[in-house]
Design a protein that fits this description.
Helices cover 30% and strands 21% of the residues. The protein is an alpha/beta fold. The protein has one domain: Alpha/beta knot, CATH 3.40.1280.10.
């Protein structure tokens, strides 16, 4: 028998994880990030950039999770990174680079909160942000494409992070 929202056996839990989105501006992606953040018990979702719109198109995809997920918008990502660094967060970027480590082989710290930086739909996490991160992770890919949708990648990453922290 399929379970509905009210009869599932999931335990509600919040992890010490902030997702910081750098210039993620596509309304359906923003809405889907709310759903993903809700599903994985993210403590806060921070949208950074100048073109962030939390409007009707976003709400269509979010299915009201924007009401339950703590979130904010901030023009300057540098300010957010300074803030989380000061608060003792382990800062990890999700990006494919020559230095990045495979998500499945990376051990996330259990004794520190985690800030997961995700990047622009077209250009990823900017170079100057990658330089201030404690680690850079990537998802191993086996097809011809070298990237995937930012929400899909975030979901896969949060699955692995919360699995390790559980």
């Amino acid at each position: 028998m399929q379970l509905d929202h009210y009869s599932n056996q999931f335990n509600k839990r919040t992890f010490s994880i902030k997702v910081i989105a750098e210039n993620v501006t596509n309304a359906p992606n923003i809405g889907s990030l709310f759903r993903t953040a809700d599903a994985f018990g993210v403590e806060e979702l921070v949208f950074c950039g100048s073109q962030i719109t939390l409007g009707r198109k976003m709400m269509k995809t979010s299915r009201a999770t924007e009401k339950s997920v703590k979130h904010r918008t901030q023009l300057d990502i540098q300010k957010v990174i300074s803030e989380v660094k000061h608060e003792g967060y382990f800062i990890v970027a999700l990006e494919i680079t020559s230095e990045s480590k495979s998500l499945t082989e990376f051990n996330f710290p259990r004794n520190k909160p985690i800030a997961l930086i995700i990047g622009d739909e077209n250009f990823g996490v900017s170079e100057h942000i990658l330089k201030v991160c404690d680690a850079i992770i990537h998802i191993d890919m086996y097809g011809q494409n070298s990237s995937m949708n930012v929400v899909q990648a975030t979901s896969i990453s949060l699955y692995e992070i919360t699995k390790q922290l559980s």
